[in-house]
């Protein structure tokens, strides 16, 4: 049965007013505008509140020259009861900017290609913000595009899930992007991770070293390396999502990613000695040559 998921983060992570939200998102897209990249097949976006990471996320959406037919969002798992990769296969997600439609044929193809690795479980997305905060950008930038929401745990299945997603996209002949939704290092006692103490030097190591090392794996599309780094050094909350996006993009012929923007919550707040800080980055994954689809 189709269903419409109600927003969980409207009014918290982004404005609930349609007018205010559209104005905010369009302003961020305009501010992030740059020469578009050729042959973008995927990417990385952060998922904090728009006031913190929205401009960084906008850098990715603004970098894609052509509207995709569909976007497969692979996201961090924030709920402790979600232990397997899970997607919504039908219906819509409500947003203040309208209904975002799930690409049902592509979702079903992913379930078939990733049988045993990805399950259909809409409830796994209830209350989670990681994909929801991307949908206003989707509505403003590509209003006709559909999407597939998948949460991917940070385990060894993630690269194989990415490969299965690539196979499903090829089988459905979709002009699609595979985009990981993940923040980077969560630093501070609140997150149980403060190995370098506090102050400016701690932030430099958290975001100038820890985040940057993880992004090196993203740039090389090293799915296994990113997965290990996120686990070992706590450099990302969505190691599984990042690994899946990297593996999917490699299977689709990409060999590199371009980091577009990077910041941290402490930088946005202008606090040189915060008690907590979270890193954010966006990247575009590109091919050297455009796709051709046999007819």
How would you name the oligomeric state of the polypeptide chains in this document?
single chain
**Which structural class do you get from the secondary structure elements?**
alpha/beta
Helix content: 25-40%
Q: Any guess at the CATH architecture? A: 3-Layer(aba) Sandwich
Count every beta strand, where a strand is a DSSP E run of 2 or more residues: 12
Cα(first) to Cα(last) distance is 33 Å
CA radius of gyration is 18 Å
How many structural domains does the protein architecture include?
Answer: 1
CATH superfamily: LigB-like
| Helical stretch tally | 9
Keywords:
295 residues; alpha/beta; Protocatechuate 4,5-dioxygenase, Chain B; 9-stranded mixed beta sheet; 3-stranded mixed beta sheet; 9 helices; 37% helix; 21% strand; globular; disordered C terminus
Please tell me about this protein's structure.
There is one protein chain. The protein is of the alpha/beta class and 295 residues long. It has one domain: LigB-like (Protocatechuate 4,5-dioxygenase, Chain B, 3-Layer(aba) Sandwich). The protein has nine helices and twelve strands. The strands form two sheets. Strands 2, 3, 4, 7, 8, 9, 10, 11 and 12 form a nine-stranded mixed beta sheet that branches. A three-stranded mixed beta sheet has the order 1-5-6, with helices on one face. Strand 5 and strand 6 form a beta hairpin. Helix 5 crosses helix 8. It starts with a strand and ends in a 9-residue tail after the last strand. The C terminus is likely disordered.
